[in-house]
Request: fold
Amino acid sequence: MKLPIYLDYNATTPVDPRVVEAMMPFFTESFGNAASRNHAFGWEVEQVVEDARESIGNVIGAGGKEIVFTSGATESNNLAILGVADFYQKKGKHIITSPIEHKAVIDPCLALEQRGYEITFLNVDKDGRIDLKQLEESIREDTILVSLMAANNEIGTLNPLKEIGEITRAKGVLFHTDATQGVGKIPIDVDEMKIDLLSMTAHKLYGPKGMGALYVRRKKPRVRLSPIMFGGGHERGMRSGTLNVTGIVGFAKALELSVAEMASEAERLTGLRQRLYERLSAGLDYIFLNGHPTERLPNNLNLSFGYVEGESLMMGVSDLAVSSGSACTSASLEPSYVLRALGVGDDLAHSSIRFGMGRFTTVEEIDYTAEKMIVAVKRLREMSPLYEMVKEGVDLSTVQWASH
Amino acid sequence: MAYSEKVIDHYSEPRNVGSLEKSDLNVGTGLVGAPECGDVMKLQIKVDPETKEIIDAKFKTFGCGSAIASSSLATEWVKGKSIDEAMSIQNTDIVEELSLPPVKIHCSVLAEDAIKAAISDYKSRNQD
Reply:
Protein backbone atom coordinates (compact mmCIF):
# COMPACT_ATOMS: atom_id res chain seq x y z
CA MET A 1 0.00 0.00 0.00
CA LYS A 2 1.37 3.38 -1.04
CA LEU A 3 1.12 6.43 1.21
CA PRO A 4 -0.38 9.01 1.23
CA ILE A 5 -3.80 7.56 0.37
CA TYR A 6 -5.92 9.61 -2.01
CA LEU A 7 -9.51 9.90 -0.76
CA ASP A 8 -10.57 13.10 -2.45
CA TYR A 9 -12.10 11.72 -5.67
CA ASN A 10 -14.96 14.24 -5.40
CA ALA A 11 -12.35 16.97 -5.89
CA THR A 12 -10.58 15.40 -8.83
CA THR A 13 -9.34 12.06 -10.15
CA PRO A 14 -6.12 10.83 -11.71
CA VAL A 15 -6.26 10.41 -15.48
CA ASP A 16 -6.68 6.74 -16.33
CA PRO A 17 -3.60 5.45 -18.21
CA ARG A 18 -5.90 4.18 -20.99
CA VAL A 19 -7.16 7.75 -21.40
CA VAL A 20 -3.62 9.15 -21.58
CA GLU A 21 -2.79 6.59 -24.23
CA ALA A 22 -5.76 7.62 -26.35
CA MET A 23 -4.78 11.29 -26.07
CA MET A 24 -1.09 10.98 -26.92
CA PRO A 25 -1.17 11.00 -30.76
CA PHE A 26 -3.15 14.25 -30.76
CA PHE A 27 -0.38 16.23 -29.08
CA THR A 28 2.35 15.58 -31.61
CA GLU A 29 1.20 13.73 -34.74
CA SER A 30 -2.44 14.64 -35.32
CA PHE A 31 -2.11 18.14 -34.01
CA GLY A 32 -4.34 19.94 -36.51
CA ASN A 33 -6.94 22.58 -35.74
CA ALA A 34 -10.38 21.03 -36.09
CA ALA A 35 -11.57 24.27 -37.67
CA SER A 36 -9.01 24.11 -40.48
CA ARG A 37 -11.30 23.21 -43.37
CA ASN A 38 -8.72 23.28 -46.14
CA HIS A 39 -6.20 20.56 -45.41
CA ALA A 40 -5.80 17.02 -44.21
CA PHE A 41 -4.51 17.98 -40.76
CA GLY A 42 -7.79 19.74 -40.05
CA TRP A 43 -10.04 17.13 -41.66
CA GLU A 44 -8.48 14.33 -39.68
CA VAL A 45 -9.05 15.86 -36.27
CA GLU A 46 -12.45 17.24 -37.24
CA GLN A 47 -13.60 13.68 -37.76
CA VAL A 48 -12.06 12.59 -34.45
CA VAL A 49 -13.84 15.43 -32.67
CA GLU A 50 -17.19 14.60 -34.26
CA ASP A 51 -16.86 10.94 -33.28
CA ALA A 52 -16.01 11.95 -29.70
CA ARG A 53 -18.96 14.35 -29.66
CA GLU A 54 -21.29 11.57 -30.73
CA SER A 55 -19.95 9.12 -28.17
CA ILE A 56 -20.11 11.66 -25.32
CA GLY A 57 -23.69 12.55 -26.29
CA ASN A 58 -24.73 8.92 -26.41
CA VAL A 59 -23.63 8.37 -22.81
CA ILE A 60 -26.41 10.68 -21.60
CA GLY A 61 -28.91 9.71 -24.29
CA ALA A 62 -28.23 12.75 -26.47
CA GLY A 63 -26.98 13.35 -29.99
CA GLY A 64 -23.52 14.66 -30.84
CA LYS A 65 -24.93 17.91 -32.20
CA GLU A 66 -26.28 18.69 -28.74
CA ILE A 67 -22.83 18.74 -27.14
CA VAL A 68 -20.97 22.05 -26.75
CA PHE A 69 -17.37 21.66 -25.62
CA THR A 70 -16.15 23.95 -22.85
CA SER A 71 -13.21 24.30 -20.49
CA GLY A 72 -14.99 22.53 -17.64
CA ALA A 73 -18.16 22.42 -15.59
CA THR A 74 -17.72 25.95 -14.25
CA GLU A 75 -17.84 27.31 -17.77
CA SER A 76 -20.71 24.97 -18.70
CA ASN A 77 -22.75 26.19 -15.74
CA ASN A 78 -22.00 29.83 -16.53
CA LEU A 79 -22.90 29.34 -20.18
CA ALA A 80 -26.15 27.54 -19.34
CA ILE A 81 -27.34 30.06 -16.77
CA LEU A 82 -26.07 33.33 -18.24
CA GLY A 83 -26.79 32.15 -21.79
CA VAL A 84 -30.40 31.16 -21.09
CA ALA A 85 -30.99 34.23 -18.91
CA ASP A 86 -29.87 36.54 -21.68
CA PHE A 87 -31.66 34.79 -24.54
CA TYR A 88 -35.01 34.38 -22.77
CA GLN A 89 -35.07 37.71 -20.91
CA LYS A 90 -38.12 38.87 -22.85
CA LYS A 91 -40.01 35.83 -21.56
CA GLY A 92 -39.02 36.46 -17.99
CA LYS A 93 -36.27 37.06 -15.48
CA HIS A 94 -36.98 34.47 -12.80
CA ILE A 95 -34.66 31.51 -12.07
CA ILE A 96 -35.08 28.75 -9.50
CA THR A 97 -32.14 26.95 -7.89
CA SER A 98 -31.09 25.64 -4.48
CA PRO A 99 -28.74 26.91 -1.76
CA ILE A 100 -26.51 23.82 -1.93
CA GLU A 101 -25.59 24.10 -5.60
CA HIS A 102 -21.93 24.49 -6.48
CA LYS A 103 -20.67 28.08 -6.45
CA ALA A 104 -20.37 27.84 -10.24
CA VAL A 105 -24.19 27.82 -10.29
CA ILE A 106 -24.93 30.08 -7.31
CA ASP A 107 -22.52 32.86 -8.30
CA PRO A 108 -23.78 33.33 -11.88
CA CYS A 109 -27.30 33.45 -10.39
CA LEU A 110 -26.23 36.11 -7.90
CA ALA A 111 -24.56 38.04 -10.71
CA LEU A 112 -27.89 37.97 -12.57
CA GLU A 113 -29.67 39.19 -9.46
CA GLN A 114 -27.49 42.30 -9.64
CA ARG A 115 -28.72 42.79 -13.21
CA GLY A 116 -32.38 42.74 -12.26
CA TYR A 117 -33.18 39.03 -12.38
CA GLU A 118 -34.99 37.34 -9.52
CA ILE A 119 -33.61 34.13 -8.02
CA THR A 120 -35.57 31.70 -5.86
CA PHE A 121 -33.53 29.42 -3.65
CA LEU A 122 -35.58 26.35 -2.73
CA ASN A 123 -35.46 24.92 0.77
CA VAL A 124 -33.49 21.75 1.38
CA ASP A 125 -34.17 19.26 4.16
CA LYS A 126 -31.58 17.93 6.61
CA ASP A 127 -30.42 15.37 4.04
CA GLY A 128 -30.04 17.94 1.28
CA ARG A 129 -33.20 17.01 -0.66
CA ILE A 130 -35.47 19.62 -2.21
CA ASP A 131 -39.25 19.60 -1.82
CA LEU A 132 -40.84 18.87 -5.23
CA LYS A 133 -44.09 20.51 -4.19
CA GLN A 134 -42.26 23.71 -3.33
CA LEU A 135 -40.49 23.55 -6.69
CA GLU A 136 -43.80 23.25 -8.51
CA GLU A 137 -45.33 26.11 -6.55
CA SER A 138 -42.31 28.33 -7.14
CA ILE A 139 -42.61 28.21 -10.93
CA ARG A 140 -44.25 31.38 -12.25
CA GLU A 141 -45.22 32.92 -15.59
CA ASP A 142 -41.85 34.63 -15.82
CA THR A 143 -39.73 31.63 -14.72
CA ILE A 144 -37.24 30.75 -17.45
CA LEU A 145 -34.92 28.22 -15.82
CA VAL A 146 -34.67 25.68 -13.03
CA SER A 147 -31.08 24.71 -12.17
CA LEU A 148 -30.65 21.77 -9.79
CA MET A 149 -27.60 19.55 -9.53
CA ALA A 150 -27.55 15.79 -10.15
CA ALA A 151 -25.45 15.04 -7.09
CA ASN A 152 -23.98 17.30 -4.44
CA ASN A 153 -20.20 17.56 -4.42
CA GLU A 154 -19.85 17.87 -0.65
CA ILE A 155 -22.47 15.57 0.80
CA GLY A 156 -23.20 13.31 -2.19
CA THR A 157 -26.99 13.69 -1.99
CA LEU A 158 -28.80 12.93 -5.27
CA ASN A 159 -31.63 15.04 -6.66
CA PRO A 160 -34.70 13.26 -8.10
CA LEU A 161 -33.91 14.36 -11.67
CA LYS A 162 -36.79 12.50 -13.30
CA GLU A 163 -39.39 14.01 -10.97
CA ILE A 164 -37.90 17.48 -11.42
CA GLY A 165 -37.94 17.05 -15.21
CA GLU A 166 -41.61 16.02 -15.15
CA ILE A 167 -42.51 19.25 -13.36
CA THR A 168 -40.39 21.62 -15.45
CA ARG A 169 -41.49 20.08 -18.76
CA ALA A 170 -45.16 20.22 -17.79
CA LYS A 171 -44.75 23.88 -16.84
CA GLY A 172 -42.77 24.72 -19.96
CA VAL A 173 -39.66 25.83 -18.06
CA LEU A 174 -36.11 24.83 -19.01
CA PHE A 175 -34.29 22.40 -16.71
CA HIS A 176 -30.53 22.65 -16.29
CA THR A 177 -28.63 20.15 -14.19
CA ASP A 178 -25.03 20.43 -13.04
CA ALA A 179 -24.12 16.75 -13.41
CA THR A 180 -20.42 17.19 -12.64
CA GLN A 181 -20.51 14.58 -9.89
CA GLY A 182 -23.19 12.41 -11.48
CA VAL A 183 -22.12 11.61 -15.03
CA GLY A 184 -20.27 8.31 -15.18
CA LYS A 185 -21.32 7.40 -11.63
CA ILE A 186 -25.11 7.20 -11.79
CA PRO A 187 -27.37 6.51 -14.80
CA ILE A 188 -28.44 9.73 -16.53
CA ASP A 189 -30.67 9.96 -19.60
CA VAL A 190 -31.67 13.41 -20.80
CA ASP A 191 -34.83 12.19 -22.55
CA GLU A 192 -36.08 10.00 -19.76
CA MET A 193 -35.32 12.71 -17.20
CA LYS A 194 -36.51 15.57 -19.42
CA ILE A 195 -33.26 17.49 -18.94
CA ASP A 196 -32.72 20.46 -21.28
CA LEU A 197 -29.19 21.49 -20.33
CA LEU A 198 -26.55 19.43 -18.56
CA SER A 199 -23.06 20.38 -17.39
CA MET A 200 -20.24 17.88 -17.12
CA THR A 201 -16.48 17.74 -16.77
CA ALA A 202 -13.80 15.21 -17.63
CA HIS A 203 -11.54 15.42 -14.60
CA LYS A 204 -14.06 13.96 -12.15
CA LEU A 205 -14.17 10.76 -14.16
CA TYR A 206 -10.52 9.97 -14.84
CA GLY A 207 -10.18 12.36 -17.77
CA PRO A 208 -8.01 15.47 -18.14
CA LYS A 209 -8.57 18.78 -16.35
CA GLY A 210 -9.70 21.82 -18.32
CA MET A 211 -12.20 19.84 -20.38
CA GLY A 212 -15.96 20.01 -20.07
CA ALA A 213 -19.16 20.01 -22.04
CA LEU A 214 -22.64 21.45 -21.96
CA TYR A 215 -25.52 19.45 -23.35
CA VAL A 216 -28.01 21.78 -25.06
CA ARG A 217 -31.29 20.17 -26.18
CA ARG A 218 -32.05 20.65 -29.89
CA LYS A 219 -35.58 19.31 -30.09
CA LYS A 220 -38.75 19.50 -28.03
CA PRO A 221 -37.90 22.04 -26.92
CA ARG A 222 -35.08 23.61 -28.90
CA VAL A 223 -32.97 25.44 -26.35
CA ARG A 224 -31.33 28.71 -27.38
CA LEU A 225 -28.40 30.40 -25.69
CA SER A 226 -26.58 33.68 -25.96
CA PRO A 227 -22.83 33.05 -25.96
CA ILE A 228 -20.68 34.32 -23.12
CA MET A 229 -17.47 33.92 -25.12
CA PHE A 230 -17.14 35.63 -28.49
CA GLY A 231 -14.75 34.95 -31.32
CA GLY A 232 -14.47 32.51 -34.18
CA GLY A 233 -18.02 31.19 -33.85
CA HIS A 234 -17.04 27.63 -32.95
CA GLU A 235 -19.60 25.22 -31.50
CA ARG A 236 -22.39 26.70 -33.62
CA GLY A 237 -21.70 30.12 -32.21
CA MET A 238 -22.36 29.05 -28.65
CA ARG A 239 -18.73 28.83 -27.57
CA SER A 240 -15.92 30.36 -29.54
CA GLY A 241 -12.39 29.10 -29.13
CA THR A 242 -10.15 26.52 -30.82
CA LEU A 243 -11.27 23.05 -29.83
CA ASN A 244 -9.17 21.25 -27.23
CA VAL A 245 -8.72 18.12 -29.35
CA THR A 246 -6.57 16.16 -26.91
CA GLY A 247 -8.99 17.00 -24.12
CA ILE A 248 -12.00 16.00 -26.19
CA VAL A 249 -10.43 12.66 -27.11
CA GLY A 250 -9.53 12.04 -23.48
CA PHE A 251 -13.00 13.04 -22.29
CA ALA A 252 -14.69 10.61 -24.69
CA LYS A 253 -12.37 7.76 -23.72
CA ALA A 254 -12.79 8.49 -19.99
CA LEU A 255 -16.57 8.51 -20.30
CA GLU A 256 -16.57 5.30 -22.33
CA LEU A 257 -14.58 3.54 -19.59
CA SER A 258 -16.66 4.99 -16.75
CA VAL A 259 -19.93 3.93 -18.32
CA ALA A 260 -18.69 0.45 -19.20
CA GLU A 261 -17.68 -0.10 -15.58
CA MET A 262 -20.43 1.98 -13.96
CA ALA A 263 -22.70 -0.69 -12.49
CA SER A 264 -19.97 -2.87 -11.03
CA GLU A 265 -17.98 0.12 -9.86
CA ALA A 266 -21.01 1.67 -8.13
CA GLU A 267 -21.55 -1.58 -6.25
CA ARG A 268 -17.90 -1.85 -5.26
CA LEU A 269 -17.70 1.78 -4.12
CA THR A 270 -20.95 1.54 -2.15
CA GLY A 271 -19.41 -1.46 -0.39
CA LEU A 272 -16.26 0.49 0.46
CA ARG A 273 -18.32 3.45 1.65
CA GLN A 274 -20.39 1.25 3.95
CA ARG A 275 -17.31 -0.54 5.22
CA LEU A 276 -15.65 2.75 6.16
CA TYR A 277 -18.82 4.09 7.79
CA GLU A 278 -19.37 0.91 9.79
CA ARG A 279 -15.78 0.72 10.99
CA LEU A 280 -15.75 4.34 12.08
CA SER A 281 -19.15 3.99 13.79
CA ALA A 282 -17.94 0.93 15.66
CA GLY A 283 -14.78 2.66 16.85
CA LEU A 284 -16.11 6.11 17.78
CA ASP A 285 -19.07 7.77 19.48
CA TYR A 286 -20.62 11.08 18.39
CA ILE A 287 -20.21 10.68 14.65
CA PHE A 288 -22.88 12.06 12.34
CA LEU A 289 -23.58 11.33 8.68
CA ASN A 290 -24.02 14.38 6.47
CA GLY A 291 -26.26 13.93 3.43
CA HIS A 292 -28.84 11.30 2.61
CA PRO A 293 -28.26 7.80 4.02
CA THR A 294 -29.11 5.97 0.76
CA GLU A 295 -29.87 8.51 -1.98
CA ARG A 296 -26.25 9.52 -2.33
CA LEU A 297 -23.25 9.07 -4.61
CA PRO A 298 -21.71 5.62 -4.26
CA ASN A 299 -18.27 7.12 -3.65
CA ASN A 300 -19.04 9.87 -1.14
CA LEU A 301 -19.03 9.66 2.64
CA ASN A 302 -19.31 12.89 4.61
CA LEU A 303 -19.10 12.63 8.39
CA SER A 304 -18.91 15.04 11.29
CA PHE A 305 -16.73 13.91 14.19
CA GLY A 306 -18.25 15.68 17.17
CA TYR A 307 -16.05 17.83 19.43
CA VAL A 308 -13.06 17.63 17.08
CA GLU A 309 -12.19 20.39 14.61
CA GLY A 310 -11.76 19.33 10.99
CA GLU A 311 -8.48 20.98 10.13
CA SER A 312 -6.71 19.66 13.20
CA LEU A 313 -8.13 16.24 12.40
CA MET A 314 -6.70 16.39 8.88
CA MET A 315 -3.34 17.36 10.40
CA GLY A 316 -3.54 14.21 12.48
CA VAL A 317 -4.08 12.00 9.44
CA SER A 318 -1.49 13.57 7.19
CA ASP A 319 -1.09 10.41 5.13
CA LEU A 320 -4.77 10.60 4.13
CA ALA A 321 -5.89 13.08 1.47
CA VAL A 322 -9.42 14.06 2.51
CA SER A 323 -11.24 17.39 2.71
CA SER A 324 -13.16 19.23 5.39
CA GLY A 325 -16.05 21.68 5.68
CA SER A 326 -14.24 23.42 8.50
CA ALA A 327 -13.83 27.17 8.22
CA CYS A 328 -10.12 26.86 8.80
CA THR A 329 -9.73 25.04 5.51
CA SER A 330 -11.48 27.71 3.48
CA ALA A 331 -10.22 31.09 2.41
CA SER A 332 -13.39 32.76 3.69
CA LEU A 333 -13.05 31.40 7.25
CA GLU A 334 -16.73 30.40 7.02
CA PRO A 335 -17.74 26.79 7.53
CA SER A 336 -19.31 24.89 4.62
CA TYR A 337 -22.36 26.72 3.25
CA VAL A 338 -23.78 23.39 2.13
CA LEU A 339 -23.79 21.93 5.65
CA ARG A 340 -25.20 25.18 7.02
CA ALA A 341 -28.06 25.06 4.52
CA LEU A 342 -28.88 21.56 5.78
CA GLY A 343 -29.21 22.94 9.28
CA VAL A 344 -26.06 21.22 10.51
CA GLY A 345 -24.82 23.35 13.41
CA ASP A 346 -21.68 25.38 12.83
CA ASP A 347 -19.89 23.32 15.46
CA LEU A 348 -20.53 20.11 13.49
CA ALA A 349 -19.78 21.81 10.17
CA HIS A 350 -16.33 22.61 11.57
CA SER A 351 -15.98 18.91 12.42
CA SER A 352 -16.84 17.50 9.01
CA ILE A 353 -14.64 15.35 6.80
CA ARG A 354 -15.43 14.27 3.25
CA PHE A 355 -14.10 10.93 2.08
CA GLY A 356 -14.22 10.48 -1.70
CA MET A 357 -13.49 6.99 -2.95
CA GLY A 358 -12.69 6.02 -6.52
CA ARG A 359 -11.41 3.62 -9.13
CA PHE A 360 -8.08 3.00 -7.45
CA THR A 361 -9.30 2.79 -3.83
CA THR A 362 -8.76 -0.60 -2.20
CA VAL A 363 -10.25 -2.39 0.81
CA GLU A 364 -6.83 -2.30 2.42
CA GLU A 365 -6.75 1.49 2.08
CA ILE A 366 -10.22 1.80 3.61
CA ASP A 367 -9.25 -0.31 6.61
CA TYR A 368 -6.09 1.71 7.10
CA THR A 369 -8.11 4.91 6.84
CA ALA A 370 -10.62 3.78 9.45
CA GLU A 371 -7.84 2.79 11.84
CA LYS A 372 -5.95 6.08 11.42
CA MET A 373 -9.11 8.16 11.78
CA ILE A 374 -10.13 6.44 15.00
CA VAL A 375 -6.71 7.00 16.57
CA ALA A 376 -6.61 10.65 15.48
CA VAL A 377 -10.15 11.44 16.68
CA LYS A 378 -9.54 9.79 20.05
CA ARG A 379 -6.29 11.68 20.52
CA LEU A 380 -7.91 15.04 19.72
CA ARG A 381 -10.89 14.30 21.95
CA GLU A 382 -8.45 13.71 24.80
CA MET A 383 -7.51 17.36 24.40
CA SER A 384 -10.98 18.65 23.54
CA PRO A 385 -12.62 20.76 26.27
CA LEU A 386 -15.98 20.13 24.58
CA TYR A 387 -15.68 16.36 24.73
CA GLU A 388 -14.66 16.62 28.37
CA MET A 389 -17.68 18.79 29.17
CA VAL A 390 -20.09 16.47 27.36
CA LYS A 391 -18.66 13.50 29.20
CA GLU A 392 -19.19 15.40 32.47
CA GLY A 393 -22.83 15.80 31.49
CA VAL A 394 -22.71 19.47 30.49
CA ASP A 395 -25.26 20.49 27.86
CA LEU A 396 -23.11 22.61 25.54
CA SER A 397 -26.10 24.58 24.30
CA THR A 398 -26.59 26.02 27.81
CA VAL A 399 -23.02 27.31 28.11
CA GLN A 400 -22.47 31.07 27.77
CA TRP A 401 -19.73 31.11 25.15
CA ALA A 402 -17.47 34.09 24.83
CA SER A 403 -17.86 34.43 21.06
CA HIS A 404 -15.17 36.18 19.11
CA MET B 1 -1.54 25.30 3.91
CA ALA B 2 1.92 24.55 5.17
CA TYR B 3 2.43 24.69 8.91
CA SER B 4 5.56 25.95 10.60
CA GLU B 5 7.78 23.38 12.28
CA LYS B 6 6.93 24.77 15.71
CA VAL B 7 3.18 24.45 15.09
CA ILE B 8 3.65 20.85 14.00
CA ASP B 9 5.83 20.18 17.03
CA HIS B 10 3.23 21.54 19.48
CA TYR B 11 0.41 19.78 17.61
CA SER B 12 2.21 16.43 17.60
CA GLU B 13 3.45 16.70 21.16
CA PRO B 14 1.28 19.21 22.94
CA ARG B 15 2.66 20.32 26.33
CA ASN B 16 0.48 20.28 29.42
CA VAL B 17 -2.71 18.74 28.07
CA GLY B 18 -5.19 18.02 30.82
CA SER B 19 -7.25 19.52 33.57
CA LEU B 20 -6.66 20.89 37.05
CA GLU B 21 -9.22 20.65 39.84
CA LYS B 22 -11.59 23.52 39.14
CA SER B 23 -12.77 23.81 42.72
CA ASP B 24 -9.23 24.25 44.11
CA LEU B 25 -8.96 27.85 45.32
CA ASN B 26 -5.46 28.09 43.90
CA VAL B 27 -6.66 27.21 40.42
CA GLY B 28 -7.94 29.71 37.87
CA THR B 29 -9.87 28.51 34.81
CA GLY B 30 -10.33 30.37 31.55
CA LEU B 31 -12.75 29.10 28.89
CA VAL B 32 -12.77 31.20 25.72
CA GLY B 33 -14.07 30.88 22.18
CA ALA B 34 -17.23 29.17 20.95
CA PRO B 35 -17.94 25.85 19.24
CA GLU B 36 -19.71 27.54 16.31
CA CYS B 37 -16.60 29.67 15.68
CA GLY B 38 -14.52 26.50 15.42
CA ASP B 39 -12.32 27.05 18.43
CA VAL B 40 -12.68 26.73 22.18
CA MET B 41 -9.76 26.91 24.61
CA LYS B 42 -9.73 25.94 28.24
CA LEU B 43 -6.61 27.10 30.03
CA GLN B 44 -6.01 26.56 33.74
CA ILE B 45 -3.32 27.88 36.04
CA LYS B 46 -2.34 26.82 39.53
CA VAL B 47 -0.89 29.57 41.70
CA ASP B 48 1.35 29.17 44.71
CA PRO B 49 -0.57 31.00 47.48
CA GLU B 50 2.65 32.22 49.12
CA THR B 51 4.78 33.37 46.20
CA LYS B 52 1.90 34.10 43.77
CA GLU B 53 3.88 32.26 41.15
CA ILE B 54 2.15 30.09 38.53
CA ILE B 55 3.39 26.62 39.38
CA ASP B 56 1.31 24.58 36.95
CA ALA B 57 -0.77 25.11 33.82
CA LYS B 58 -2.97 22.81 31.74
CA PHE B 59 -5.01 23.24 28.60
CA LYS B 60 -7.60 21.56 26.41
CA THR B 61 -8.41 22.99 22.99
CA PHE B 62 -11.01 22.34 20.30
CA GLY B 63 -9.65 23.99 17.20
CA CYS B 64 -7.22 23.88 14.34
CA GLY B 65 -3.56 22.93 14.64
CA SER B 66 -2.55 26.56 15.18
CA ALA B 67 -5.08 26.93 18.00
CA ILE B 68 -3.75 23.81 19.70
CA ALA B 69 -0.16 25.00 19.26
CA SER B 70 -0.99 28.51 20.58
CA SER B 71 -2.57 27.17 23.75
CA SER B 72 0.17 24.59 24.26
CA LEU B 73 2.77 27.35 23.98
CA ALA B 74 0.76 29.57 26.33
CA THR B 75 0.83 26.95 29.09
CA GLU B 76 4.56 26.55 28.62
CA TRP B 77 5.13 30.29 28.90
CA VAL B 78 2.97 31.02 31.95
CA LYS B 79 4.56 28.31 34.07
CA GLY B 80 7.10 29.77 36.48
CA LYS B 81 5.88 33.32 35.88
CA SER B 82 4.22 35.61 38.38
CA ILE B 83 0.64 36.59 37.68
CA ASP B 84 1.72 40.06 36.59
CA GLU B 85 4.33 38.65 34.24
CA ALA B 86 1.81 36.27 32.73
CA MET B 87 -0.62 39.16 32.20
CA SER B 88 1.94 40.84 29.99
CA ILE B 89 2.11 37.99 27.42
CA GLN B 90 0.91 39.38 24.11
CA ASN B 91 -0.67 37.54 21.23
CA THR B 92 2.00 38.99 18.95
CA ASP B 93 4.66 37.11 20.95
CA ILE B 94 2.80 33.87 20.14
CA VAL B 95 2.45 34.81 16.45
CA GLU B 96 6.17 35.43 16.26
CA GLU B 97 7.22 32.29 18.13
CA LEU B 98 4.98 29.99 16.04
CA SER B 99 5.33 31.91 12.73
CA LEU B 100 1.55 32.03 12.38
CA PRO B 101 0.21 33.29 9.04
CA PRO B 102 -2.28 36.21 9.05
CA VAL B 103 -5.36 33.93 8.84
CA LYS B 104 -4.28 32.23 12.07
CA ILE B 105 -3.68 35.35 14.15
CA HIS B 106 -7.07 34.89 15.84
CA CYS B 107 -5.69 31.67 17.38
CA SER B 108 -3.02 33.67 19.19
CA VAL B 109 -5.59 36.26 20.29
CA LEU B 110 -7.67 33.47 21.76
CA ALA B 111 -4.65 32.08 23.64
CA GLU B 112 -3.93 35.52 25.12
CA ASP B 113 -7.60 35.80 26.10
CA ALA B 114 -7.43 32.37 27.71
CA ILE B 115 -4.46 33.35 29.88
CA LYS B 116 -6.20 36.56 30.96
CA ALA B 117 -9.47 34.73 31.63
CA ALA B 118 -7.71 32.15 33.81
CA ILE B 119 -5.94 34.85 35.80
CA SER B 120 -9.10 36.88 36.23
CA ASP B 121 -10.93 33.76 37.43
CA TYR B 122 -8.17 33.09 39.93
CA LYS B 123 -8.23 36.68 41.16
CA SER B 124 -11.99 36.80 41.54
CA ARG B 125 -11.88 33.71 43.70
CA ASN B 126 -9.02 35.01 45.84
CA GLN B 127 -10.11 38.50 46.80
CA ASP B 128 -8.75 39.38 50.19
Q: What stands out?
A: Chain B has a mean pLDDT of 95.
